[in-house]
Each structure stands twice: as structure tokens, then as C-alpha cells.
């Protein structure tokens, strides 16, 4: 198995079921996304992905596929808490072999966060989706 495939397998296996990957479909694009506490990652996996582990640090991971193949994309997102405090997330593109994914980190307290994500690939239409997720700091 290749190094990138092993890395992605390790990343997926290191997350609990509560951080399960989700899927949003848009015409010919599949957008896979997951948001989780960075403390769920093993230190060596976090380091390899350039993720800072912390009890109040979350990670948003986005991957865009067309016909099962990774696609480069422009990814933007906003995260908002229940008090209406909002911040823009900046994403870092990670390429490992044929895989392309976009990672962003954000701080959180014990709270429910609302995410609004915009994805555009290959000059196609802007695709948007929203989701809520509750976060708990590591002890």
C-alpha cells in the first residue's frame, strides 16, 4: 500500500464514529467533509498533516471528487457559534499521490457550531452547503 493511502487510512481509523465523514452531492461532484476535534488524531498523524493538536482546536476536512477522482477546488467556509460570532476559515490544500484534500483549523469551546461551506471546481458553479456540529474540548 502506498504512503498516501496508508496516511489516509490511518487518518480515517484514528477518528471516532462521532467524526464520521459526511457527503454532499452536487450534479457531477461529490464533496466529502468531516469536522472533528484535533485531539482525536494521533500525534504522528497530526504532525504529518500539519495539524496542531489542542483541546480546543477543531479541524474541517474537505475533499472534492468527480467520478471518484480527486478534483482541485476553491474551498471557502464560515463558522459561527450560537451567539452569532463568525469567522472565515482559511484552507490549506494537501496533495498526497492522487488524493487532494483541504484542511482548516478553528478554535472552539463546548458549543454547537454552524458551518457554511462554498466549493467551486474547474470553473463550474459555486456549490454551497451548511451543517451544524457540537464540539467538546478534550479533558
From TrEMBL:
Keyword Nucleotide-binding: no
Pfam families: DUF4426
Domain DUF4426: 24-138
Lineage top rank: taxon: Bacteria
Keywords tagged on the record: Signal
InterPro entries (alphabetical): DUF4426
UniProt signal peptide: 1-19
Name of the protein in its database record: DUF4426 domain-containing protein
Species this protein is from: Azotobacter chroococcum NCIMB 8003
Amino acid at each position: 500500500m502506498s504512503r498516501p493511502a496508508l496516511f489516509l487510512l490511518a487518518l480515517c481509523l484514528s477518528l471516532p464514529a462521532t467524526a464520521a465523514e459526511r457527503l454532499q452531492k452536487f450534479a457531477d461532484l461529490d464533496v466529502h467533509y468531516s469536522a472533528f476535534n484535533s485531539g482525536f488524531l494521533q500525534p504522528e498523524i497530526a504532525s504529518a498533516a500539519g495539524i496542531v493538536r489542542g483541546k480546543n482546536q477543531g479541524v474541517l476536512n474537505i475533499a472534492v471528487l468527480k467520478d471518484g477522482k480527486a478534483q482541485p477546488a476553491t474551498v471557502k467556509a464560515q463558522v459561527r457559534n450560537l451567539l452569532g460570532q463568525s469567522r472565515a476559515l482559511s484552507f490549506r490544500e494537501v496533495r498526497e499521490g492522487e488524493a487532494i484534500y483541504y484542511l482548516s483549523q478553528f478554535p472552539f469551546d463546548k458549543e454547537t457550531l454552524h458551518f457554511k461551506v462554498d466549493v467551486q471546481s474547474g470553473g463550474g458553479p459555486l456549490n454551497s452547503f451548511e451543517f451544524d456540529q457540537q464540539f467538546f474540548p478534550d479533558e
